[in-house]
Design a protein that fits this description.
- This protein is an alpha+beta fold.
- It folds into three domains: about 100 residues, no CATH class; about 170 residues, no CATH class; about 140 residues.
- It contains nine helices and eleven strands.
- The strands form four sheets. It has a four-stranded antiparallel beta sheet. Strands 7-8-9 form a three-stranded antiparallel beta sheet, covered by helices on one side. It has a two-stranded antiparallel ribbon with strand order 1-2.
- Helix 2 runs parallel beside helix 5, helix 2 packs antiparallel against helix 8 and helix 6 runs antiparallel to helix 7.
- The chain is rod-shaped and about 140 Å long.
- It starts with a helix and ends with a helix.
Amino acid sequence: MSNVFGILNTGRTALLTQQKAIDVTGHNIANVNTDGYSRQRVNMETNEPYSSQPGQTGTGVRAAEIQRIYDRFLGAQINNENQNLGNWETQKGVLERVEIIFDESSGYGLNQAMSEFWNAWQDLANNPSDYAGRAALLAKSETMTATFNNIYSNLEQIQTDIDTSIMGTVKEINSIAERIAGLNQKIALTEVGGQNANDYRDSRDLLLKELSLKINIDSFENSDGKVTVLVAGGRPLVENISSWNLSTQPDVDSDFQDIAWTDSDGNLVDITDSISGGKLKGWIEARDVTIPDYLSKLDNLAEGIITEVNDLHKAGLGLNDASVAGRNFFAGTTATNMAVDVDDVNNIAAAGSLDGLPGGNSNAIEIANLQNALKMNSDTATFDDYYNSLVSDVGSGVQKATVNFDHQSSMVTHLDNYRESVSGVSLDEEMVNLIKFQHGYNAAARLISVADELLDRVISMV
C-alpha cells in the first residue's frame, strides 16, 4: 500500500540502482585502455507495481542485469581474418630473411661470384701459361663454391629456426587451450546462478583471438556458456572444461617436426597437413614448400655448373703434359657439397690437345663460353638466367607475402576499429553517464530525505 515507508523503499531501490550504475561506469572508465575489454551497462527496469486507487502505483527501479556490449558475429569475423593475418605475417618474415641471403646489392652475392668465375676462365684463356691467372681462377672458384655452400647452409638454418618456432608455438597453443578451458568452468559456474560473467567472457574472447593468430580454429558456444574450439579439420582442442594437447614428433622423411593431436586414448594423430591458417600454417608452408623449392633450384644450378665444367675439364690437359687428363675440376654434386677438386694450378686443364702444350687454351675457351650457353631449363636458359630467375622468384614471394600481409592487417585493423565503435569505452559517453547517474543518485537521496521529514511529521502528530 502507498505510505511513507513505500516512498522510503522507492528511494532506497533508486539509490542502490544508481549506485550500481555508477560502479559499472567506473569499471568502464578504469578499463578504457584494457585490450579486449567490452564496455558494460546496467539495464534498469521498474519494480513490480501494486494495485491501488485510482490505479497501479510503481514501487521504484531495480538493476535487472549488467550487460556486456558485444557483437558475437564480429568477434568470429575477427578471428577468421586473424588466421590469415598470422599466416602471411609469418611467411613475410621468413621470406624477408631469405631475400637477405640472395641479396646482390652488396656485390658479394652468388651472381657476382659466378661472373668472376667465368671471367677468370676467360682471363686464363687469354694467357694460359700465367701462374697468377691460374691461381686467381682457383681463388674465384673457391669463392663461388663457398657462396653456394653458404647460401644453402643459411637456407637450412632458416628451416631449423622455423622448426624451433613451431615447437614453441605448439606449447603456447596448449597453454592458451588450458586457460580457455579454465574460463569455461568459471563462466559456467557464474552464469548458472543467473549472473553475466562479462569480464571472464572478455578474457576468453581475447584468448580466442590470440589462438586464431597461431592456428586455424572453429569455435562455437554451447547453451551453458562453454565454448568448444576445433582445430585441423574438426578435432577438439577445447571442450567443456577439458583441453587436448598438441605435440610435435619427428617426421619420418626429414629432420623436422610434424604436429600431432592427442586423442582421448593417448594416440598421436598427425595433423600437419590439416592446418590451414595462423602462424603455424605460414611456418609449415615456408619450411616444407617454399624453402625446399629454393634449395632444389640452387642444387640444380650447382649440379649444372659442376657437370658441364667437369665434362670439359676431364677432356682437357694440364699446363705441361697430359698426365692430369680425365680429372674433375669440381667435387661434389650439389650446392651443399660443391668444392674445388684441383690442388695444383698446373693441373688446370686449359689446353685441348697435346699440340697446344705447354700453355694451350682451347679448353679454357670452351669452359669460359659455358657462361652464355643454354644449359639450364631443358637447354633454354643460361646459368645466369636460371639464377636470376631464382632471385626473381624470391622477390616475387616477398612481394606477394607483403601485399597479402598488408591487406590482412588492414582488414583486421578495420574490424578492430569497428569492434571498438561497438564495444569500446568512450570516455565522453561515460562522463555523461556518470553525471546522469550522479543526478539520479542525488535525487533519490533527496526523495529519502523528504520521506524522512514526512515520517518525522507523522511521528510528531502521535
